[in-house]
Amino acid sequence: MAPDTSDALAAGLFQAAHQPLIRAIVDNLSEGVIIADAAGTIVYFSPSARAFQLFGLPHMGQETWRTHFTITDPITQQPFDLERLPLVRALAGEAHAADMFVQSDLHPEGQHLHVSGQPVKNPEGELLGAMIFIRDTTREHQAEARQREAEQRFRLIVEAAQEGIWTIDPEGNTTYVNRHLAQMLGYTEQEMMGRDAIDFIAEEHRAQVLVNFRKRREGISDVHELALRHKSGRTLWTIISSNPLYDAAGHYTGALGTITDITQRRQAEQRVIQLNEDLERRIAERTAQLEFSNRELEAFAYSVAHDLRAPLRSLSSFTLALSEDCADQLSSEGQDYLKRIRAASQRMSDLIDGILALSRVNRAEFQETEVNVSTLARQCAEQLKRWQPERAVTFHLQEGLVDRGDVRLLRSVLENLLGNAWKFTRERPQAQIHFGVRPEPGPSRVYFVRDNGAGFDMEYQGKLFGVFQRLHTQQEFEGNGVGLATVQRILRRHGGRVWGEGQVDQGATFYFTLHEPPPSAIPPPR
Q1: Long-range pairs for 192-199 at CB < 8 Å and ≥24 separation?
Q2: Closest to 112 (Cα-Cα) out of 122, 121, 104, 102
Q3: Which of 55, 128, 190, 393 could staple 431 via S-S, CB 3.0–4.6 A?
């Protein structure tokens, strides 16, 4: 273009009177400004346009564009139609704007640009050229791309979640549901969108949900159980965590709910409750039956004791009368028979006493208090010494042992165990009886009573706690075979157990516990 033509264009664009001011304004625009004459030759680059380094040198012609630049549509990723270039359209007399992605030798990584073109005409309407405005939108596109990527990640997370996601507007209409919630209720996402959330709530919970809507508008979040209605009409039990939503200005825009299906858990809980109720009913029935059986057994025991004592008293009385009144008429053998009859009747009386004592263990009211077990043991030992002060017996009693239990029943336990130790050590010139707690750690305290007496064969250990089961004859050691059975019943009432260890002629040790935890509550050894 001839210089006078360029000057004429510049004068037409900037108007000579105000050219310095207008040029200064254009030079300082943040957008790049390019001016081309009617032939398409660049006659002006603003500093900002040069900063883009889009067109290389000033006065670069249109044909050079096609050689040094790759221009693509940022949406379709297809090559940009050069006929759609704002410069081309402006030179054709039409204002036009376009977004484009441009790669050049200077910018191989590319730039996103927003380019708009305006034709420049004189007052007579003759086309003088075009003005092109260029704005770099690379950062905006990158920010939008990051936002789209974040939104896509968020959508993938929400859609993959194994919990229902539900949002509503201030009026309670559904604005979003994820696939999991829609499937949970038997709908598609499209079927739920826009519908009133109340439509999906079980009838019995709708009033409460309306209250919850008011709480969300007041800014209150909460977690509660909620019954939803499946498309088929059945009820789903859920836990919903609900929170209010706000826009950037702090205005309430609705609520977000996170929903977990707990229907199976509720059904399992109901089954457990039903099973517990059935179990409690059965226990009550069995307890009533057991109480009835115990009362019947007690009545039977007392009836038998009463019925047996009468003939026993007769036997005892008549054998005593025979031995006193007819002694001179009986031979020594007859006298021996009378002694045996009296001994047998006394033995029978002792057995009856044992039966009654055993029945009283279960019948006695259980009153648990704090018991000084060491004091009970010392009292039992002192009583044994008073009965047979001539015996040489040393008691080793551990002090300071305190536990919880029924003091009367625990006294009976120690009387039986210490009494057995006293009895089975009578052949020892120096008897030793120990009472204390085993030092080894364990889930519960283990008491023991140890002696150096006759002991027993471990082969017959299973008979120790049976009623009327004895490991020694009546001639060796007296007894009715009820003491250890009584001990076992008492300790069971205390939630404990008893067991024994021994060797023939080497002594015996009996262990017992109180309030022993069940096996399931005992941690495994490390």
Answers
A1: 196/172, 197/166, 197/168, 197/172, 197/173, 198/172
A2: 102
A3: 393
Three-state SS at 426 = coil
Neighbouring residues of 217: CB distance < 8 A, sequence distance ≥ 6: 170, 244, 252
Residue 172 in this model has a pLDDT that exceeds 80: yes
Report the first-to-last Cα separation within the chain, whole angstroms.
97
Residue 259 CA to residue 192 CA, distance in Å, equals 15
Residues 441 and 51: their CA atoms lie apart, in Å, by 84
Which residue has 């010494």 as its token pair? 385
Does an H or E element contain 420, and which? helix 407-424
R_g over Cα of the chain = 53
Q: From residue 294, how far is each of 107, 203, 409, 492 by CA, in Å? A: 101, 53, 19, 16
Helix axes 483-493, 332-363, angle to 10 degrees: 0
**Rounded Cα gap, residues 181 and 225, in angstroms:** 16
Q: What are phi and psi of 507, to 5 degrees?
A: 95, 175
Inter-CA distances, 256 with 177, 342, 476, Å: 10, 93, 86
Q: Check if the beta carbon of residue 9 is closer than 8 Å to that of residue 129.
A: yes
Question: What gap in Å lies between CA 45 and CA 57, rounded to an integer?
Answer: 9
- In DSSP notation, 46-89 reads -HHHHHHT-S-STT--HHHHHHHEEEE-TTT-SBP-GGG-HHHH
- For β-strands 393-397 and 431-437, DSSP reports them as parallel
134 SS3 class: strand
Q: Note whether 354 and 481 are within 8 A (CB).
A: yes
Please, what is the average pLDDT of the chain?
A: 79
Distance from CA of residue 523 to its chain's centroid?
19
Residue 279 near residue 326, CB atoms below 8 Å: no
**Neighbouring residues of 353: CB distance < 8 A, sequence distance ≥ 6:** 480
In angstroms, rounded to a whole number, what is the distance separating the alpha carbons of residues 465 and 511?
13
Q: What distances in angstroms separate CA 387 from CA 308, 342, 378, 410, 523, one per listed residue?
A: 30, 24, 15, 21, 46
At 339, the amino acid letter reads: K
Smallest CA-to-CA distance from 235 within 261, 209, 213, 207 is with 261
Write the CA distances from 36 to 11, 18, 63, integer angstroms: 13, 20, 14
3-class SS string, 273-319: HHHHHHHHHHHHHHHHHHHHHHHHHHHHHHHHHHHHHHHHHHHHHHH
Distance of alpha carbon 237 from alpha carbon 164, whole angstroms:
13
Contact of 513 with 437, CB cutoff 8 Å: no
Q: List residues bridging with 509 in a β-sheet.
A: 450, 501
pLDDT in tens, 445-455: 899 999 998 88
Q: Which two tokens stand for residue 197?
A: 């959330």
In tens, the pLDDT along 494-519 reads: 889 999 888 888 889 999 999 887 76
